[in-house]
Design a protein that fits this description.
The chain is 75% helix and 2% strand. The chain is globular and about 50 Å long. It has eight helices and two strands, in the order H-E-E-H-H-H-H-H-H-H. The chain has helices at residues 3-23, 46-61, 65-88, 92-111, 116-136, 142-157, 162-178, 187-204; strands at residues 28-29, 41-42. The model has no long low-confidence stretch (mean pLDDT 91). It is mostly helical. Helix 4 (92-111) packs across helix 5 (116-136). It starts with a helix and ends with a helix.
Length: 205
């Protein structure tokens, strides 16, 4: 199937999911002394991006149990932890332990045969990217723009890559609602998701 049709489907799926979350929010970000907004804003927009990515994959390639278990189950776990953190403000130890857990499972699923020290470094690498994107998610669109620039930059070196194009299309769809003034925030579900995706793509390529 044409990769542009697949990416368009991902764009539209993310657009619809994001719009739904703005109208029927499941998490609300309230104004705080650390935040830059002064009104209640829907959050946990990473759920919409995940829906777009999963829809994109199923539309283009069908449902493959192996790919779902190896890739999308990890992404779902990351999004779920982020959502729970958005909703209930999880303790730092639970967030960090969850990030280490899913990063370890992912690294072992690909690189269990390499020396232990490299496995540890890869786990640290993934946890770092999850948190660096979470740190950036404090200003409207910053984390989204960083993700878009990253994936577009990679496409300059790997032209026609359907994975990069699909991810970028989903982020662009979410950006329409996240640009200033934001109608929805990424939340931890979104920043964890983007950071994790950036990390695993850098490891895989």
């Amino acid at each position: 199937m044409n990769i542009y049709y697949i990416s368009l489907f991902g764009f539209l799926s993310t657009l619809l999911a994001t719009y739904t979350l703005t109208k029927h929010p499941i998490v609300i970000s309230k104004p705080t002394s650390r935040g830059l907004h002064d009104a209640n804003i829907p959050s946990s927009g990473g759920i919409a991006i995940f829906v777009g990515l999963l829809s994109c994959y199923i539309y283009g390639y069908g449902f493959d149990v192996f790919v779902f278990l190896k890739i999308f189950l990890a992404l779902l776990f990351v999004v779920t932890i982020g959502y729970l953190d958005d909703k209930y403000a999880l303790p730092k130890i639970i967030r960090f332990a969850s990030q280490i857990f899913i990063s370890t499972l992912f690294v072992l699923s690909y690189y269990f045969h390499i020396p232990f020290i490299f496995i540890v470094l890869m786990i640290i690498f993934l946890v770092y990217f999850i948190n660096i994107y979470n740190f950036m998610d404090g200003i409207d669109s910053l984390a989204i723009y960083q993700g878009i620039f990253f994936f577009i930059g990679l496409m300059l070196f790997i032209p026609g890559n359907e994975v990069l194009l699909s991810i970028t299309s989903c982020l662009l769809a979410f950006l329409l609602f996240n640009k200033h003034p934001s109608r929805i925030f990424l939340g931890n579900s979104g920043s964890y998701l983007i950071g994790f995706i950036v990390g695993i793509i850098l490891l895989i390529i």
